[in-house]
Design goal:
This protein is an alpha+beta fold and about 140 residues long. It has one domain. It contains 3 helices and 4 strands; from the N terminus they run αβββαβα. The chain has helices at about 40-50, 95-110, 130-140, and strands at about 55-60, 75, 85-90, 115-120. Strands 1-2-3-4 form a 4-stranded mixed beta sheet, with helices on both faces. Strand 3, helix 2 (about 95-110) and strand 4 (about 115-120) form a beta-alpha-beta unit. The longest helix has 14 residues, at about 40-50. The protein is globular, with a radius of gyration of 16 Å.
């Protein structure tokens, strides 16, 4: 991964959200309003969490919109230099079959770089027993 370069300051990953999402005035949210974000803004938010919380660097968008991306949206380097990949899923529901399909696509594609950590970033809670069981099964498969 020595050929990776830092993202440019003008990268779309570093730009502000295209439209602000309103916050509720009264009450509390059970879930952040991810579905109010555009697909691009949702991806930017996930990159910022990867960067600011996990310490990932040298991020690159993997492909253009509509291009075959081999199941990846953003690739980056962890602090130890290992490759990390994010598949961004801004779906209204995400369950066991979605987890299985995302991991299958990740495992069956060839990339010109090594990915040690695969992250599926979703906009909804994933907590059904079937989804949690599938996630455990896929973790063992990877």
């Amino acid at each position: 991964m020595s050929d990776w370069q830092p993202i440019q300051l003008g990268s779309t990953l570093n730009t502000a959200p295209s439209t602000p999402v309103g916050a509720p005035v009264i009450g509390k949210l059970d879930l952040l309003p991810f579905n109010g974000l555009s697909w691009e803004d949702f991806e930017r938010l996930q990159w910022r969490v990867m960067r600011d919380v996990k310490g990932l660097r040298h991020a690159q968008l993997y492909g253009d919109r509509g291009q075959a991306q081999k199941g990846l949206d953003i690739v980056a380097l962890a602090p130890d230099g290992t490759g990390v990949a994010l598949q961004s899923k801004k779906y209204t529901s995400f369950g066991a079959s979605n987890i299985k399909a995302a991991v299958k696509k990740f495992l069956t594609t060839t990339r010109p770089f090594t990915v040690e950590t695969f992250i599926i970033g979703v906009a909804r809670p994933v907590k059904t027993t079937a989804a949690v069981d599938e996630l455990a099964a896929q973790r063992r498969a990877i």
